[in-house]
Amino acid sequence: MPCVGAVVHDAAGRLLLVQRAHDPDRGAWSVPGGRVEPGEDDATAVVREVLEETGLRVRPGAEAGRVRVPAASPVYEVVDLVCTLVDPGAVPVAGDDAADAAFVDAAGLARLRCTPGLVETLGGWGLLPRC
């Protein structure tokens, strides 16, 4: 199943995360994202997903990396894109598939229950919160 994720930092270097409202991993925190709909490319899908889950508008950029989520059925093939905020002062508001949405710093991230492998993957890509 093709999916996208958005890696978004605000001007302070905090990372945008959403708390998942549905399975898999209900209640865990992750980057906003979801399935690529028929006829969408990755960039279009990531813009739509971030807007639906956080109310924020983003500009998609370079690919951060790819992850495979084999524990799910179907298997999710996720392309994560580094995105920038269209309105840097905007505040995320949970919507659609998100129970909550927030920008978190490194200390806040350490206190959250995140989806399996999220922190390690973002760390490997050099994309953890910068503060």
Automatic annotation (TrEMBL):
Cofactor(s) recorded in Swiss-Prot or TrEMBL: Mg(2+)
Domain named Nudix hydrolase: residues: 1-127
Keyword annotations: Hydrolase
Domain of life (superkingdom): Bacteria
A single GO molecular function term of this UniProt record: hydrolase activity
Family matches, as SUPFAM superfamilies: Nudix (SSF55811)
Similarity comment text for this entry: Belongs to the Nudix hydrolase family.
Protein name: ADP-ribose pyrophosphatase YjhB, NUDIX family
Species annotation: Klenkia taihuensis
